[in-house]
Automatic annotation (TrEMBL):
Disordered: region residues: 254-273, 331-350, 422-452
Coiled-coil parts of chain: 10-58, 90-145
Protein name (record): Coiled-coil domain-containing protein 170
Taxonomic lineage of the native organism: Eukaryota, Metazoa, Chordata, Craniata, Vertebrata
Highest taxon above the source species: Eukaryota
Stretches with biased composition (Low complexity): 430-444
Transmembrane segments: none
Keywords: Coiled coil
Biased composition (Basic and acidic residues): 336-350
């Protein structure tokens, strides 16, 4: 009876051992898969580190004052140098902008002064016209008053002559006096004196007529010249005013066009950059989700391995208890002990794999933080989908090229030939656009610390 029980227990132990062997094989397969994944992760990490080192070398080569035999700069030194270059370029651009704004304000002030002078000239022309109208009105009033006095004097002379006795020839003499306009003087004179007065008046009129003719001709000529001169001056002032107005309007239109073109170009560049950054962000988010799914699968695979280990330990204990009763199961118990040792070795290896994965994730986070800091210093959005390391290096090259040319203008006067050290070194290798770093959820904290 006891023997049958032992046989049954032996059969049950054999079945348990077979099941443990099958589970151990499955565990070995899972461990092999994890090792393969770990090797792939190591290879990817090494490739990422090589790309990062190459990127640092390219960035350091573009920095000013970098010699070929100088040691490789660290991330902090590269960031510090980039910050200095960005600050210097920003100060240069601010100085240029300030100078351009001053020139524009001077042009606007000149245009305003010209417009004020034109308005003052128009006002002076209007005042001169008003004065001319007033003088013409006064002249007409004086002519009317003079005609009235002459008519009154003629009327008085006629009344006096009517009261006197008529003489022969008086009528002709009166008509002649009226024609010569001496009736007011000849009223109190005799006949002989009136004849002499008429003769003198005739001679005087002839002389006055000749002098008046000459004077009228010279006055007419001078008035014509003065009128022509005033007309030319008025036309030149009007033309000057029109030119000033056209110049002011052209300046305003050029300023509007310049502002519109600058704002339109900035808007187009901003739209294109936003689209590229959106695509880059979407691609990085997809890579991040894939990495998270892979990590979740690895963690899920590690849970059954720990459960299998516990089960193996329990089965080993059961086998040890049975070995105390049955000496025939010594070989099986030794096999189980070897399995236990192998499982412990696998567990230690799994722990090592976990630590390696943690170190790899920390390294990737540091690389991504450094890349984002460099992108932000260059006013690039590191979360864009199509922002590659090649774009960052090209932006750095353009920035440093501008900075070197600025240094050349300040420190290398004359026509001396000078080449940018960024173009004398080896060409920047085109990094593949598909190279991207997985940004873990906790990557924002190191980036914030790096920016501070």
């Amino acid at each position: 009876m006891e023997r049958g029980t032992l046989v049954e227990r032996l059969d049950a132990s054999k079945k348990v051992v077979e099941a443990a062997r099958r589970e151990s094989r499955c565990l070995e397969k899972q461990v092999q898969e994890l090792e393969e994944k770990l090797q792939r992760s190591h290879r990817e990490t090494r490739a990422a580190e090589e790309k990062m080192q190459k990127f640092l070398q390219n960035v350091a080569g573009l920095l000013p004052g970098k010699r070929e035999d100088a040691p490789l700069l660290t991330k902090e030194e590269v960031l510090h140098n980039l910050n200095e270059v960005c600050n210097k370029s920003l100060s240069v651009m601010e100085a240029r902008l300030h100078q351009a704004s001053e020139q524009l304000s001077e042009q606007a002030e000149l245009g305003l002064r010209a417009l004020q002078r034109a308005q003052l000239a128009e006002q002076q022309v209007q005042d001169l016209r008003e004065r001319l109208r007033g003088l013409e009105a006064e002249l007409q009033a004086a002519d009317v008053q003079r005609d009235g006095l002459r008519l009154h004097r003629q009327h008085v002379g006629k009344e006096v002559r009517r009261e006197e006795a008529p003489r022969p020839g008086d009528e002709f003499l009166e008509q002649l006096s009226e024609a010569m306009r001496v009736e007011s003087v000849a009223v109190d004179l005799g006949f002989d004196m009136r004849l002499k007065l008429t003769l003198k008046r005739a001679e005087q009129l002839v002389k006055q007529e000749a002098a008046a003719l000459v004077e009228s001709r010279s006055l007419t000529y001078s008035l014509q010249r003065k009128f022509k001169l005033q007309k030319d001056q008025l036309e030149s002032k009007a033309l000057h005013v029109q030119l000033l107005r056209n110049k002011v309007s052209e300046l305003e239109e050029e300023e509007k066009k310049r502002r519109c073109s600058a704002s339109a170009g900035e808007r187009d560049d901003a739209h294109l950059e936003t689209r590229r950054l959106k695509r880059k962000v979407e691609r990085l988010q997809g890579d991040l989700k894939a990495a998270e799914r892979s990590n979740a699968e690895l963690e899920a695979q590690l849970v059954p391995a720990s459960e299998l280990k516990m089960r193996v330990v329990e089965q080993d204990r059961a086998l040890q208890n049975q070995n105390q009763r049955l000496e025939q199961l010594d070989a099986v118990s030794s096999d189980l002990r070897s399995r236990e040792q192998q499982s412990r070795a696998d567990q230690r290896q799994l722990d090592g794999l976990r630590r390696s994965l943690s170190q790899l994730s920390d390294r990737e986070r540091e690389l991504v933080d450094f890349r984002m800091v460099v992108s932000q210093m260059l006013d690039l959005d590191a979360t864009a989908l199509d922002l590659t390391s090649y774009d960052i290096i090209k932006s750095l090259e353009g920035l440093l090229h501008t900075y070197h040319h600025h240094l050349h203008h300040h420190h290398h006067p004359g026509n001396m030939a000078w080449h940018c050290p960024a173009h004398q070194g080896p060409e920047v290798q085109d990094l593949p656009s598909s190279s991207s770093f997985d940004l873990p959820p906790s990557g924002s904290a190191p980036l914030h610390e790096a920016q501070i």
